[in-house]
Amino acid sequence: MAKDGTNRGGAQIGAGRKPKALAEKIANGNPGGRKLKILDLSKDATDLEGSDMPPVRDFMKEAQRSGLDLCAEEVFTETYLWLKKLGCEDLISRRMLEEYSMSVARWIQCEMAISQFGFLAKHPTTGAAIPSPYVAMSHAFMKQINQSWYHIYQIVKENCTRTIPSNNPQDDIMERLLTYNPRR
Question: Which candidate, 183, 165, 27, 146, places its Cα nearest to that of 87?
Fold first, then answer.
C-alpha cells in the first residue's frame, strides 16, 4: 500500500528472472542442487501409447466473409506436430493451442486487409482520412500471438531435456505473409 492509501506497487506478474531450460540445467550439472523434473521418455517402444492429433474444431475451419481461407487449422496442425516431435504435446492445453492458432490466423487476415486496402481509411461521418483500423487490430493480434507463444515455448523449454530446434512454427508466420498474393 502506498502512502496515499492506494494499492500500488508490489510484486508484478512475469517479473523476475526467467527459469532456465531443463537441458541447460542438465548440461551445467544442476548447479541449484534441486531435484529436476524430467519426463521419462526412455520406456520401451512396446510400453508407449500412440496418440493421434486431436481433431481441429469447426470454428477454426469456418468460411470467411472475405472468401479467403482461415489458416488456423494449418497453424494448429503445424504447432501440434512440432510439440509432438519434442514430446510435449500433453503439456500444452488444447485451448492454449487453439488461442494461438486463431490469433495467428486473424493477424494474417488483418495484414492481408492492410495490403489490400492500404494504411488509410475514410471516416464514416466526416469522410476525412483516418488510420486504417486493420493496423490497430493487427497490432493487438500480434501482441496476443507473442503472449500465447511465450507461454507455449516456456512450457516446452522448461520440460524438454534436449535443446529445442530453431525451426519452430513461429518462424513460418512471416513466410506465410510474404507469400500472400491479393490478386488471386
Answer: 165
The least confident of 107-111, 140-144, 150-154, 176-180 is: 176-180
Residue ranges making up the domain that contains 167 = 74-177
Three cell numbers written together for 165: 530446434
Q: Does residue 179 carry a pLDDT above 90?
A: no
Q: What angle do CA 35, 41, 42 make, to 5 degrees?
A: 100
Q: Read off the amino acid at residue 181.
A: N
At 120 the three-state DSSP class reads: strand
pLDDT of residue 46: 47
Task: Give which of 78, 68, 149 is closest to 110, Cα–Cα.
Answer: 68
Measured CA to CA in angstroms, residue 23 lies from 37, 53, 93, 95 at distances of 11, 26, 22, 27
Residue 166 confidence class, pLDDT cut points 50, 70, 90? low
Q: Which of 64, 133, 136, 135 is nearest to 105 (CA)?
A: 64
| Structure-block grid coordinates of residue 9 | 506497487
Is 11 within a domain? no
The pLDDT score that the predictor gives to residue 90 is 86
C-alpha grid cell for residue 36? 529436476
Number of domains in the chain: 1
